[in-house]
Write a structure and sequence with these properties.
- The protein contains four helices and five strands; from the N terminus they run H-E-H-H-E-E-E-E-H.
- The protein has helices at about 10-25, 30-40, 40-50, 80-90; strands at about 30, 55, 60, 65-70, 75-80.
- The radius of gyration is 13 Å and the shape is globular.
């Protein structure tokens, strides 16, 4: 995967959450819901989601794992086919202590 070690835990958690939401409803997840689930603020999530999307940051194209859509005032994160493939390659999630 193309994330740095500092980004991996949050990127992996996002991929897992979006893959689960996709499997349950075929839809994405609102940023407030994703933030509550992962214990992160919207700005942290948007920064990470941008890195995980296909956006070019610093001249480097992202992996295209997610896309973020704004409809009216609601932001929703969706996993892509590339993201689903990446989620299947993740190591097993660690159990919470």
């Amino acid at each position: 995967m193309t994330t740095t070690p500092e980004q991996e835990p949050l990127a992996w958690a996002i991929l897992r959450a979006l893959a689960q939401a996709h499997g349950e409803s075929g839809a994405g997840m609102s940023l407030p819901r994703l933030g509550k689930r992962l214990g992160q603020g919207a700005s942290v999530l948007m920064r990470q989601l941008t890195l995980m999307s296909d956006a070019a940051v610093g001249g480097q194209q992202g992996p295209g794992w997610v896309r973020v859509v704004q409809a009216d005032d609601r932001w929703t994160a969706h996993i892509t086919e590339q993201g689903l493939a990446a989620a299947q390659e993740l190591p097993a999630a660690e159990a919470a202590p």
